[in-house]
């Protein structure tokens, strides 16, 4: 029963965070190519060394720069909110007999970090990782991808690249084929029968197309982490 209680708390925190991030959904402005490259700097939110997030600078368009930084700032604000909720919930559990008997079961931690995956040809792709620990065997993480046009500040979704149902179908077929050829990494095929690449699949740009990055347990065991599958543009163009 204790494990169920802890699991429900973690799921609740992740759902709250995902809901907060959803308010940063991009607009449908037209794409305009640019050869600019962003300078990405690391910021610490509210002096919390475990809450690090990116901001861009040096763009020709100050308007685009503000748009991008606003979206990234909203993310870390969501991270901070999730951290405070985790802290509050775990502190309320300190009186639980389990915490007295097994102190490590009531320890908690939260970390936000990021990686720049692409930064050229007028686009930047950034992955932000939110990881939390609330006792138990291991923590839980969530990866969120952010892809921007550096000239306009447009926030791209996967649907800006896969512009039709047919393209989503082609990429799904390619990805499932790749997974079936790597059973040492991914779940068995029968578990992934209903799997589909959709607008919520996290991605980033590459020199040859896009890369899809998946959440823990989404397509592979926890030990794999966030598996990545590179999809060449020839698959969907």
From TrEMBL:
Residues 50-140 form the Deacetylase PdaC domain. Residues 169-232 form the DUF3298 domain. It holds the Pfam family DUF3298. Residues 1-32 form the signal peptide. InterPro entries: DUF3298, PdaC, PdaC/RsiV-like_sf. Keywords: Signal. The keyword Signal applies. The keyword Ion transport does not apply. This is DUF3298/DUF4163 domain-containing protein.
């Amino acid at each position: 029963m204790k494990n169920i209680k802890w699991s429900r708390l973690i799921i609740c925190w992740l759902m709250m965070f995902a809901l907060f991030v959803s308010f940063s959904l991009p607009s449908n402005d037209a794409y305009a190519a640019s050869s600019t490259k962003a300078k990405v700097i690391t910021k610490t939110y509210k002096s919390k060394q475990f809450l690090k997030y990116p901001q861009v600078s040096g763009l020709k368009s100050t308007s685009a720069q503000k748009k991008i930084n606003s979206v990234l700032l909203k993310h870390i604000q969501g991270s901070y909110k999730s951290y405070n909720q985790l802290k509050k919930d775990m502190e309320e559990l300190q009186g639980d007999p389990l915490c007295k008997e097994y102190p490590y079961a009531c320890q908690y931690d939260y970390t936000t970090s990021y990686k720049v995956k692409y930064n050229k040809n007028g686009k930047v792709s950034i992955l932000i990782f939110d990881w939390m620990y609330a006792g138990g065997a291991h923590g839980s993480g969530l990866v969120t991808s952010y892809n921007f046009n550096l000239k306009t500040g447009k926030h791209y979704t996967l649907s800006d690249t896969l512009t039709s149902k047919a393209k989503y179908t082609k990429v799904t077929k390619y990805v499932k084929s790749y997974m079936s050829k790597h059973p040492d990494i991914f779940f068995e095929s029968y578990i992934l029968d209903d799997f589909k690449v959709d607008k919520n699949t996290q991605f980033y740009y590459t020199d040859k197309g896009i890369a899809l990055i998946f959440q823990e347990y989404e397509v592979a065991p926890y030990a794999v982490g966030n598996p990545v599958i590179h999809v060449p543009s020839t698959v969907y163009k």
